[in-house]
Design brief:
The chain is mostly helical and about 210 residues long. The protein has 7 helices and no strands. Pfam families: Ribosomal_S15 (PF00312).
């Protein structure tokens, strides 16, 4: 408006919303082709003769994130599966849990890159990381070669937990010595009480005879 005052023009410019360009954050679902069918319709023989519009509606192009996550999780399980017919082994059950947790953790990481102040999902991600670390630690103790293959196929970098260290101070030594002394005195009292009860039982047994 040419008839507006400079102050009004400045105010209008100040009130204009700022359009921020969002960064393109890479997702683990980017490698899924949009023409791939959903999990429930992939193996149906009738899908070879359906119309292109119907096929497009049943493809990943129109799928939700939940349906895409199912396919991604299945792909991660197939990476660590030993044979196609292996459906009931203990390793596969453990692999499936680790694969599901890995897919969830990556989904949470992508979400937190866009919303870094979401504390609720950050807490869920940390809980999933701790659970996966426990499962991988167990697998590392039981079958190390399988553990290495799982980390390699899923792209997981496993780090050993740091050894427990505690700074030894004079106060901590005094407290430890006091706790040991209290424990020993309690054990002596319990032993005296047990000896007293045993003698009473023996005395009652003699009196009964």
């Amino acid at each position: 408006h040419p008839g507006c005052s400079p102050a009004l023009q400045a105010a209008r410019g100040y009130a204009r919303p700022v359009t921020r360009r969002r960064k393109d954050i890479p997702s683990q679902l980017d490698d899924l082709p949009p023409t791939m069918l959903k999990k429930d319709y992939a193996n149906l023989p009738v899908m070879n003769s359906v119309d292109d519009v119907v096929r497009r509606l049943l493809s990943l192009e129109m799928a939700s994130q939940k349906e895409k996550m199912k396919i991604k999780t299945q792909q991660l399980v197939e990476k660590v599966r030993r044979s196609p017919g292996d459906n009931g082994s203990f390793e596969l059950a453990l692999f499936f849990t680790v694969a599901v947790l890995t897919a969830k953790i990556r989904m949470f990481e992508e979400h937190l890159q866009r919303h870094p102040k979401d504390k609720n999902n950050r807490r869920r991600m940390l809980m999933a990381v701790d659970k996966r670390k426990k499962l991988l630690g167990y697998l590392r103790r039981v079958r190390y070669d399988t553990f290495e293959n799982t980390c390699k196929q899923l792209g997981i970098q496993y780090s050993l937990p740091p050894p427990y260290t505690r700074r030894i101070t004079k106060r901590w030594l005094v407290k430890k010595a006091f706790c040991i002394k209290v424990f020993q005195e309690a054990q002596k009292l319990k032993a005296a009480e047990r000896l007293k009860q045993r003698r009473e039982r023996q005395a009652r047994a003699r009196a009964a005879q």
